[in-house]
Structure formats: C-alpha cells, structure tokens
Amino acid sequence: MQSTFKLTTAAILVAASLSACNGDNTVKNAAKAATVVSKALTAQDAEKFLATTEKELVQLNLEGSRAAWINANFITQDTSALAAAADQKSTEAGVRFAMQAAKFDAVEVSADQRRKLNILKQSLVMPAPQDPAKSAELAKIGAELNSLYGKGNYTTKSGETLSLGEMTATMATSRNYDELLEMWQGWRTISPAMKPLYIRQAELGNEGAQGLGYADLGAMWRSNYDMPADDFAKELDRLWGQIKPLYDDLHCYVRSELGKTYGEDKVPQDQPIPAHLLGNMWAQSWGNIYDLVAPENADPGYDVTKQLASHNYDEIKMVKGAESFFTSLGFEALPETFWQRSLFTKPADRDVACHASAWDLDAKDDIRIKMCIQKTGEDFSVIHHELGHNFYQRAYQNQPVYYQNSANDGFHEAIGDTIALSVTPKYLKEIGLIDTIPDESKDIGLLMKMALNKIAFIPFGLMVDQWRWKVYSGEVTPENYNSAWWELREKYQGVTAPIDRNINAFDPGAKYHVPAGVPYSRYFLAHIQQFEFHRALCEISGNTDPIHRCSIYNNKDAGAALNTVLEMGSSQPWQAAYKVLTGNEQMDATAILDYFAPLHTWLKDKNQGKQCGF
Ligand code: X8Z
Ligand code: ZN
Fold first, then answer.
1. Buried-state track 270-281, b at ≥16 Cβ within 10 A, e below 16
2. Which of 98, 207, 219, 355 is the catalytic position?
3. Closest Cα to atom 3, ligand 1: which residue?
C-alpha cells in the first residue's frame, strides 16, 4: 500500500505500480520479446525511454503519495478506495516500466543507464500481474490490510476499548503477568481477519514477480542489494553469526532476571522467554524492562522519559529537539510546511495509521512525519529515526528520480538511528535535559539499556523476512503460517508464544510491516550499519571518548561527511557509498561488537554457572 512507498521512497514508488501489458506474461515470453525487440534498440532509445519515464514517475509519485497520505491520516472506506486506485495506477505503470526496461537487457548502454534500467526492473515492492483485474485486486487487498491494522484495537475483559498506543504503554510499564498477557493476546485479535487477504496478496505478488522474471517475490526483494540475491541471503547469515554470541549472552542474563521477577515456573530457565514479558508488543526491543535487569551499582541514574516530563517537553518540543541535532551538524532547518502538515499526535476523532513514518510528497521540500508521539525516551529516539528519513530525502532531491532513494534500504533506516546514538549523557547535559554526566563506572548500565534496544532487536530484524521469504517461495503454506512464524521466533530470538495459539491465529499480521507489505531486512541491516556509521563519524569528529560516550552534536565535519553520502542517493552501488563513510565496501558487525565489548565481558561473567541457550 502507499505508505509502503513512503517508507521506502520515490524510486521504489515508481516500481510499486503497474501497467496492463495484457496477454501472456510468463517470464519466458517476456524474455523472448525482450530479445527480439532488443536487436533494434540502442543506447539512444534507452536515453529517450528513461527521460520519458522519469517525467511519468514524478507525476505518479506525487499523485500516489497524496492519496496515500490522506488515506493514512483519515482511514475511511473512501480514502482507502482512492488510495487503492492510485496504487493500482502506479503499480501498473511500474510493471510496464520494468517490462520495457528489460527490453534493453542485451543493448549496450552506459553504466548510468544500466543502473537506472536495473532500478526500474527491481524495485517494485508488490508487483502486480499484468492483468488489470488482478492489479485492482492486489491494490484493494493492500488498502484493506493497512486499514485493518490502522483501525485495530481491543476491548478488554472489563469493557475498555484500547488502541495499540495504549496497549504499547502497558506492555512497557506493567509488571503484572496476566495484564501483560491480556494485552498481548488482545492485540493479536486484529489479525486473523487478515489471513485470507494475506494469502491472496502473496499469490498475486508472486505472480507479478514471476512475470518480471523472478522465481518469487522474496527473490525479487533480495535482488535489490547490488549483489546476487543468494549472496545477499548469505550475507545476512554471516552478519547474524557475528552477533549471535553476544545475543545469546544477553538472552541468558535477561531470562534469569525475568525468572527472578516472575518466577521460574513462568520463565523456565531452559526454554525460550514468553514473548509478553519483554516490554514490547512484539518482543522486538527490550529497553522498557531495563529496570528489571539493571546492573547493580551501575545504573546511570536518569530516565529520559522522566526528564522529558520534568522539563515540560510536549510532542512538538521533542521534534524540535531532534531537529536541532541535525541543524547542529550543518543541515538546514525543516521547512515551515513540515510543521504545518505533519501529524504529531493521535487524533481523538478518527482512525489514522499511527505507525511512525516519514514522507516526501513532492521530491522538492514537502517533507513530513506522521506519528502518534508518546512522550517517552523511546519515542524521542523514534523521532530522530524519522527525521533521518526526512533529511535523507531532502539531501538526494537533486538526483534524478531513479536515484532519489537511499544507497540500500538499510541506509534509509540507519541515518536517524545513527544520530540517536549520539544522544549520550554528555549531549543530554548540553541541551539541559540532565544535570550531571554519570560517572564511567555507570557505563555498564548505559550499555545494558542500549543493548536491550539494539542487540535484542537484531534476530527479530532477521526473522520477519526469513518468514516472508518462506511464504513467498511456497516452503511455508497457509496452514503453517503461524506455526512457522513461531518456529522462527524461537529459533532466532529464543522467545515463545505465552499461550497456545488458536488455529485461526495469524500473529505475523499483528506486526505492522506484514500487512503493510514493508520489507524488514532493512532494519536488520540498519542495526549493523548505524554502529559503523557512528564509529566513522566519531572518528571524523575527533572523538577521544569511548565510542558509546561519543556524540557528534555540533560537529560540522561529521555533518558534512554524512551529507556527502546522503546526497549520493542511490546513484552508486551501496558499497561505494559505504566506502565513502566507513572505508569499507562490506558490512561488518565489528563496530557494534566493539561498542558492546565491555558489556559482553560483564555478561559472560554474570552468566557463569547459568544454564544458557534455548
Ligand atoms: O518501522 C520502523 C520505523 C519506521 S520506518 C518506526 N521501525 C521498525 C519497527 O518499528 O518495527 C524502526 C525500527 C524497526
Ligand atoms: Zn524508518
């Protein structure tokens, strides 16, 4: 659905739509047609095609984003229908462009033309089959799935109707096993209705991907990383292999502390952790249970949520605070329209898609965020995350539309997080949110809090698409959707469903990105990349503190280096952009491992004699 586009960006939007090249759309025929026509085509034809397509894309992106924005801000039957119509139009165009681009496969073109043609061939997130009835059906399904998620709520046993935001707040703060369980179960009542839609979406998306020459939609998603699709999958495994020993030690320690809180009958010490006890609706980041696992004598002694409250931060002040980090690096302030047009708080009187997102409506300067901000430290970080998207979008706006995107999709997700890594005690003191910088003897506490958010996330970031890839390849069939989801949750995260799941349960649908059709590997990548970016920027800024105490606030050299990469958009293979900032062409987990090295040593010590593993 459209918001998918905006979480990705214009160039992908391009790809996200489709045309009605009617007729037989098998890969074989498409390829044959391409070979026959390609004899007559030249690099000049490619230039012409790319120029005309660019104009069409600009128009489609603008129309599509406006329809999507209105739908996400006022979810009704009518806005969903309008968004679906725009989505269908742009997806059909995207398929048509991909088919036309394939005709140049055997034509000698410049490297720049080849990159643009490849982008047209690869970047659709949910390609439709070349049949107008099916592309209409696919667009309608996308809108319905988004609407089911956006409108989702739960009426408690005591008759109170709760939004996801309200349930999220309880998941973060309650330490009552049964209350947590009710929230966890309650939210998952929204998703069984999604299952038939999801099954059909997977069929149609696969048919669309196959029409474009891919084995299935998962293979198409994996083809977007300037390397063979299979190598990308191996790359993720390699990176996970680097992180896993640290994750296992964090898991072991957290499980034993939760056993102390809830009892070992509730948290068996040789089993995966019940998924509702980790402070988050999806057990994807665990920072909210910091108080339960805080190291003795090393608690840094402040809580950003409380500091925001005691300093009278409202939602706007939180966004202004995040903006001023970017301006301190030399980025221009956000435009007035950002403040007029963004959504910062959950409206009382209508359904909106509350999941945070950043938008670029016109590839000029109409950038916005849409977020139902809660006044917590967690959302203060999410605001930095979202503004990272906006400053990126603005930095690459002078690129041709094909390159108005991040170097790979992990970069888009990593930029704001990189900045948030600089929200250190030193920085918080500088902006007046805390009075004193905790002593270095408290660093294990700071690192623990960060690890609960960042290290705990990594296997979740990996498993979501492991599941979808299996769904799209047919390895996991609809009868097994839910059981396969939990097998992967147990295998990678070592968390388990706290109660037997009903035969109708469709728990993947209770995670935004599944119904919204947003690929998830990007967040796994971002979690590795942001530490590499942080390390590189800290070096540029001349930092001499330990890396977890480094803040690049106010450092114009770091800002300029960051901007160089942002401005490139996707004009070069991501490896080139990566090299500009980090000096390497390959992703590597050593920066994140180095960052957490003191904590890892501490955890290994604490885990001595414990039964680890799940
Ligand atoms: O969806 C997001 C952002 C918008 S791109 C808020 N994130 C993932 C999630 O919430 O599941 C950021 C971290 C992971
Ligand atoms: Zn994001």
1. eebbbbbbbbbb
2. 355
3. 356
At 454-487, the pLDDT tens digits run: 999 999 999 999 999 999 999 999 999 999 999 9
| Distance between CA atoms of residues 275 and 614, nearest Å | 13
Whose Cα sits closest to atom 6 in ligand 1? Answer: 356
Over residues 437-448, the mean pLDDT reads: 96
Residue 32 has pLDDT above 90, yes or no: no
Could you please report the per-residue DSSP string of 308-359? HHHTT--HHHHHHHHHHHHHHTTPPPPPHHHHHH-B-S--SSS----S-EEE
Q: How far apart are the CA of 356 and the centre of ligand 2, in A? A: 8
DSSP 545-600: S-GGG---TT-HHHHHHHHHHHHHTTSS-HHHHHHHHHS-SS--SHHHHHHTHHHH
Amino acid symbol at 452 = L
H/E stretch holding 155 = strand 153-155
Report whether pLDDT(21) > 90.
Answer: no
Q: Helices (H), strands (E): how many in the chain? A: 28, 6
Residues 527-568: tens digit of each pLDDT: 999 999 999 999 999 999 999 999 999 999 999 999 999 999
Residue 146: pLDDT above 60? yes
The tokens for 550 are 């480094």
**Of the residues 513, 534, 548, 600, which is catalytic?**
513
311 is catalytic: no
pLDDT at 39: 59
**Cα-based angle 353, 359, 364 (whole degrees, multiple of 5):** 155
Q: How far is the CA of 411 from the centre of ligand 2 (A)?
A: 10
Under a CB-based contact definition with an 8 Å cutoff, are residues 354 and 325 in contact?
A: no
Tell me the per-residue pLDDT of 341-361, one tens digit each, with 9 for 90 and over. Answer: 999 999 999 999 999 999 999
Taking the C-alpha atoms of residue 158 and residue 161, their distance in angstroms, rounded to an integer, is 9
